[in-house]
Amino acid sequence: MTDSENIIRLAALQDSGNEIGPASVDGLALAFAERYADELRFVAIWARWLRYDGTRWQYDDTLHVFDLIRALCREVARECGKSARTNASAKTVAAIERLARADRSLAATSRQWDAEPWLLNTAGNTFDLRTGDGQSPAHLDYLTKQTVCGAAPVGTPHPLWTAFLARH
Fold first, then answer.
1. Between the CA of residue 30 and those of 10, 98, 99, 109, 123, what are the distances in Å?
2. Which residues, 6+ apart, have CB-to-CB distance to 154 below 8 Å?
3. DSSP, res 112
4. Which of 65, 73, 71 is nearest to 101 (CA)?
């Protein structure tokens, strides 16, 4: 049975009112999406996962998503009294990951990243360059770039910057 046939079958089960168990592939994919909705996104056109580190989004270059899914499988297996070997097979982990990619809470488009050119993401704050207002970094800003250092405290002298602004 193909992945799309499995997805159609699972959707039909849900539509008929049948419960999908927490240890099923679909149940695990739903639990994974719920748990990581604020820190993971999948961009289909890039075929890549991104993870929010608290200040910016970064590509998952280490298959961290697979590791998170394996941990979830082991956790659910313990709760259900099953062998972790039963749930955490490579095939099961890959199936959960493929279903999670399409979950609306994890899916993202390529256009939403770094879409606001006036936001400057520093090591500690995100600044709106139009107003100078700063705020804590937010995952919904979808910023992937960040300055190397943070902003200086208010009142710090800045003679080079002032001279630059005076010339332009």
1. 12, 12, 8, 20, 33
2. none
3. G
4. 65
Question: With a threshold of 0.90, does the pTM exceed it?
Answer: no
Instruction: Using the structure block, give the residue that is written with the tokens 């800045």.
Output: 158
- Which residue bears the tokens 């005076």? 166
65 touches 52 (CB < 8 A):
no
Strands 134-135 and 40-43: unpaired
Return the higher-pLDDT residue of 81 and 127: 127
Angle (CA) 109 150 157, round 5°: 135
Identity at 53, one-letter amino acid code: D
Closest Cα partner for 52 from 158, 152, 156, 136? Answer: 136
Question: Pairing state of beta strands 40-43 and 48-52?
Answer: antiparallel
Measured in residues, the chain has a length of: 168
Residue 107 φ/ψ, nearest 5 degrees: -75, 140
The token duo for 142 is 């979808």
Sign of torsion over alpha carbons 123, 113, 105, 76? negative
The pLDDT tens digits of the residues spanning 34-89 come to 999 999 999 999 999 999 999 999 999 999 999 999 999 999 888 887 765 556 78
